[in-house]
Specification:
Layout: H1 9-14, H2 39-51, H3 67-80, H4 84-94, H5 102-113
Amino acid sequence: MTGSASYPAEFFTAAGHSNIILLALDAHDIDDYDISAHFPVALNFIHKSLQAGDGAILVHCAAGVSRSALITAAYLMIAHQISAVDAVLRVHQARPCACPNIGFLRQLLLFERTGFKLT
């Protein structure tokens, strides 16, 4: 979830981690960026990744504060049928520095109001 391709797939395979599947999404940490446009692909990828193999996934962005926290919260909302507030609190409990920007939080609330509808 970065503004650029920080880690090309070759980074992992060269380090001997050929079993890593990488999904890189070009997302920008600015209030008016439509991060919800990434929900269908990102949330599906998280779901499939958790169902396969050892069921582990790393969602990250540049600092692990806004973009990755928001995507993780959106996934928790669907997976556990919880509110946006509860999802953000769960993410914050696991990562205290997590703090999605205000525009992202608005999109998360809209996601909740639309019944977790993926566009």
